[in-house]
Structure formats: C-alpha cells, structure tokens
Amino acid sequence: MPIRLQRSLGRRRAIFLGLEMMAGIGAFTAISQFRNAQTQAQNQVLQRDFTVSGTAPLRDRAARKGLFYGAAVLRSQLAKDAEFAKSVARECNILVSIGEFKWDMLRVQPDRFNFEPADVLVKFARTHNMRLRGHTLVWHQALPLWVESTMNNLNAREIMVDHISTVVRRYAGAVHSWDVVNEAIKPEEGREDGLRYTPWLNFLGPNYIDLAFRTAAAADPKAMLVYNEFGLDYDTPGANAKRTAVLNLLTRLKNSGTPIHGLGIQAHLGREGKAKLKPAQLRQFLRNVADLGLKILITEMDVTEKAFPTDIQLRDRGIAALYEDYLSIVLEEPAVIAVLTWGLSDRYTWLSTAEPRSDESPVRPLPLDAQMNRKFAWNAIARSFDKTTKRSPVA
Ligand code: G3I
C-alpha cells in the first residue's frame, strides 16, 4: 500500500479515533451531569420537610378551611374490609363511588337497575356524616353490552334521558354532586369543538352534554352538577390543548344557560412522564374556570410512580412532593372546594394493574399504605390543608 495512502489512512484513523474519544468524553460528561442532577434532586427530596402538626385526620383539616377531603371507594371494599372502612370513616368527609353509579354496575339490563350497591354507599356516607359524589352519568366507558348492541340514533336520547332521570331522581338529597358527563374532550380527534367521538356524540350530536345537564337538573335541582376531565394539569401540548377545549366547552355551556355548577379535575399526577407543572399557567386556568361562576373539585388525585426509584423512602417522599407541589397551586384558588384521592390506601388502587412497576414492587400512590398507616403522601395533603386559606363552606 503506497506510503502516501498509509499516511492519509493513518491521519483519518487518528481523526476518527479523536472524534470517538471526544464523543466518549462528551457522553461520559452528560451521564455524570445527569447522575449529579439526579443525586441533587434525590437529596432535595430526602431533605424536604414534611412535618405535620398534630394527628387530626384529613377530613378535619379540610373542614377547618371549608373544604371536603375524601376518596374513591367500592361498596365491596367497605363491606369486606373493616380496617379499611374504619380508615375511610376517620379520614374522609366526602366519598365518590368507583363503580356503583356506572352503567355496567347500575343498569345491567335496559329495564333492570341494580341500586343495592349504591344504596350501601349512601348509607355509609350518611352514617359517617359524609357527602357522596355520583360518578358518572354519561361516559363512553363502563357501558354494558346491551347499550353497545341496542343504542342507535333513534333511541339514544330516550335511553340517556331515562337513565339520568331515573338515577338522579332516586338519589335526590343523597348524592351531593354528580359527574354528569365524564371525559368528553379529546382535541387530538380533530373536531373544532375538541369533543371526543363517543356513542353519545355520534348518536345525539354535541348538544348531548347540554341535554345531560338539563335532565339531571330537572331530576334534582339541588345537586351540584359537574363536568369531569383528566389531563389538565401539566405544561404539555396535549394538556394545553385540553385546557383550552375544556374552557371553551364550559364557556359555551354557561353562555347557553346550561345548569352546570362545577369542573372536576381528575389530577392523575405523574402520568405524563417528565412533564412539569407550570404554576402560573395552572392558576390562570383555574381562575378562568372560576370566573365562569363554577366551583372546582379535584376529583381523582393519585400519583403514577412506576418511574420512581425502588427505595421506599425516596419513592414516598417523591410522591409526597408531587402532591404538595400540586395542592399548593390549586388550593390557592378559592373556587376549589374539594380534594378526593382515587383511593385512600395502597391496598386498593387501580394503579396496581394499570401502572405496575418494572421492579414488581407494589405501587405506593395513596395517603395510607397497604397496612393503613399514614405516609408522607398523607403528610403532604395534611400540610396543604393546614396552609391554605379558609373558604366559605359549600353546602
Ligand atoms: O365489581 C365487579 C366484580 O363484581 C367482578 O367480579 C369484576 C370482574 O372483573 O369486575 C368488577 O368490576 C370492575 C370495576 O372496576 C370495580 O372493580 C370492572 O370490571 C372494571 O372495569 C372497573 O374498572 C374501573 C374503571 O374506572 C372502569 O369503570 C376502575 O376500577 C376504576 O379505577 C376506573 O376509574 C376511572 C374513573 O372512573 C374515570 N377516570 C379514570 C379512572 C381510572 O381509569
């Protein structure tokens, strides 16, 4: 091989090797910077103060500020688990049904309602001086097979109106607030109004939402009627679009005189990866909703923590930090009247199956652990209630 060629190959190899070394050093630097940032973040969480004064339950701390605190439960959990039922009674002054007011548990046949499970929740709430939330009257999920096989554009109106009238009338005075319509917004489906394509939209058109609220108001003029939605919390393109679409929907409903009284923000935190809260952005959204004359309920708060470290101390503190950072923002808005977590104890959380951890350790998203002990998450919620300003209590 000619010398000249050897030299140019040598030079090229040297350059290539040099570039590789620089890339290696660059990558090493990036990884060590990432690790340093991670360590720094973990140290911040480990040093964060979650001290709570006293042992008063969450319901008392909430009530002192004119708020409700509660959790999502199933009748079956309360019936079979006395320890859990006792913890719910101690900590909550409002409950929401996980399934008893959904179509697939409540109305298994078109002409047959199964009210017994919901009646048990009504009784439990009354016994323990709690409000009860009815979740949910109109949703595109949890629909029994008969709805999907028989509903069409000729009978959909009667099916929906009959359902809402029958259920809301029966629980008038027992159910404090209804999620009349749940998760009707999905901007990525491309409609100008941002509505999600559901059987209700397909058969009844966009005014199905107004019809649902008017029907519920006629059946119980005293109930608080709420639109409930998820994915409204973070500074991401999806959440930003969803907040805009929800605000537009609420504005349209209010301008047309629809009897709507509140927005339910589900607040399933930690589900959008590394997305961050933008406090001013979230505060402004809440204020815009409140300026429509609506109350705001945090309806299903929990934390997806599958990406958190395995170390329990780090996980529990990281989860608590998410709760406290979120509540410190939303509770600044006086229109926020209730905070409910989607479950009270790690013994019962949908996230065990919906968002399992890769290290296969049980998830720890809720205020109480699986043995009903209070965790840092409980402290975070307690501290948030203790720090917020008092609202005029809502009936
Ligand atoms: O109660 C029956 C039980 O008798 C039967 O043996 C069992 C067999 O699978 O099913 C039980 O019903 C289940 C119900 O949860 C109560 O546990 C349903 O199959 C199951 O589909 C249902 O899932 C619920 C889901 O909503 C659909 O209704 C989840 O637990 C619940 O966490 C989830 O909650 C939703 C909110 O309603 C709306 N916002 C999002 C949130 C999380 O997805």
Describe this structure in words.
It is built from 15 helices and 9 strands. The protein has 395 residues and is of the alpha/beta class. The model has no long low-confidence stretch (mean pLDDT 94). It has an 8-stranded parallel beta barrel, surrounded by 6 helices. β8 (295-303), α13 (312-330) and β9 form a beta-alpha-beta unit. α2 packs parallel to α15. The longest helix has 45 residues, at 3-47. The chain has a single domain (57-387), classed as Glycosidases (TIM Barrel). The termini are far apart. It is globular. Bound molecules: ligand G3I. Ligand G3I is lined by residues 74, 98-99, 102, 141-142, 182, 230, 266, 300, 350.
Short summary:
This protein has 395 residues and is an alpha/beta fold. It has 15 helices and nine strands. It has one domain (57-387): Glycosidases (TIM Barrel, Alpha-Beta Barrel).
